[in-house]
Amino acid sequence: MAKYSYSVPPRTTRMSRCNSLRELPLDVFVHIINQIPASRDSRGDSNVKILANCLQANSVLREAAILSSIWEPHYRTRYLHCSDAEESRRRKLCRGDWRLMYAERRRLDRIAVQLLDQMVNQRVGRYDHAKSLTEMSFDIWDVLELEAQCLFPEIFRERSSDNEVVVQPHATTRRFWAESMLQVIARTYAVRLWGRLVAPDSGFVSFEETLSALSCFFGKTPMEVRTTMLVTGVLNHVLTSLS
Questions:
Q1: For residue 151, what is the enclosing H or E element?
Q2: Would you state the pLDDT for residue 110?
Q3: What's the CA gap between 44 and 38, in Å, rounded?
Q4: Distance CA 171, CA 153 (A)
Q5: Separation CA 143–CA 161 (nearest Å)
Q6: Contact 102/71 with Cβ under 8 angstroms?
Q7: Over the stretch 90-142, which tens digit does the pLDDT of each residue have?
Q8: Rounded to whole angstroms, how far apart are CA atoms 240 and 243?
Q9: Do 51 and 69 touch, CB atoms closer than 8 A?
Q10: Contacts of 205 (CB under 8 A, 6+ apart)
Q11: How far, rounded to the nearest angstrom, does the alpha carbon of residue 243 sit from its chain's CA centroid?
């Protein structure tokens, strides 16, 4: 059997290559990192880990990966919902830095997943955990939505996949509680909003907010309804101007 050998480049060679990379303009690294696609699925998590690794690689990559604009598409792609008041507070606290805002939302995601894990694995304390999740409101909607889409065991799937997929423990129970909490969060928001209509000194509630809250009882969030209404209004305006 033929034997193959390889040699490790000398230390001086490796160092010279690193120095050559550092001589590249920062804009080149920024352009390369910008090519990392944003996604809501597991690929998105992997891509964000790449960004995190860039922050720890060397000073040049860190300077590129720390830019707020690099993180904006990843934030906007993963987080489609939020609590308006908390989002304003978060934006002010982070001074509009998308990287810091992303880190804060992921911190909330971890707390939500931990509470969901406890609801799945333990019968005791479920109502307390549900209350904590409800108070976090739409800030954890996106992570719960992803948990509600976790794969069933293969025996319960309509079609088997040739690719190896990771099935979370108690996937069926996990989906049930995640979907249940989505319903609770949405309906709690609607009830509290409508309560402000009759409560004195509770602040102004617009007709649009009041109407869009009805969607909470039909599996849609007010954010989705407002977006649909906005797009519909723009299309109607365009069609009217063309006619």
A1: none
A2: 96
A3: 6
A4: 7
A5: 24
A6: yes
A7: 999 999 999 999 999 999 999 999 999 999 999 999 999 999 999 999 999 99
A8: 5
A9: no
A10: 193, 196, 197
A11: 40
Comparison of pLDDT for 235 and 52, the residue scoring more = 52
- Give φ, ψ of 37 to 5 degrees: -75, 150
- Cα separation, 54 vs 48, in Å, equals 10
**DSSP summary character for residue 124:** T
**Cα–Cα nearest to 143, from 214, 1, 44, 236:** 44
From the number of C-beta atoms within 10 Å of its C-beta (0-12, 13-18, 19+), residue 107 rates as exposed
Whether 160 has a pLDDT exceeding 60, the answer reads: no
Task: Name, in order, each residue with C-beta under 8 angstroms of 145's C-beta and a sequence gap of 6 or more.
Answer: 178, 182
Which of these, 53, 95, 45, lies nearest to 74 by C-alpha position? 45
Condensed to tens digits (0 to 9), the pLDDT of residues 16-70 reads 555 566 677 888 989 999 999 998 876 768 889 999 998 888 888 899 999 999 9
Structure tokens at 39: 């996604």
Instruction: Report how far residue 74's alpha carbon sits from residue 111's, in angstroms, rounded to the nearest whole number.
Output: 20
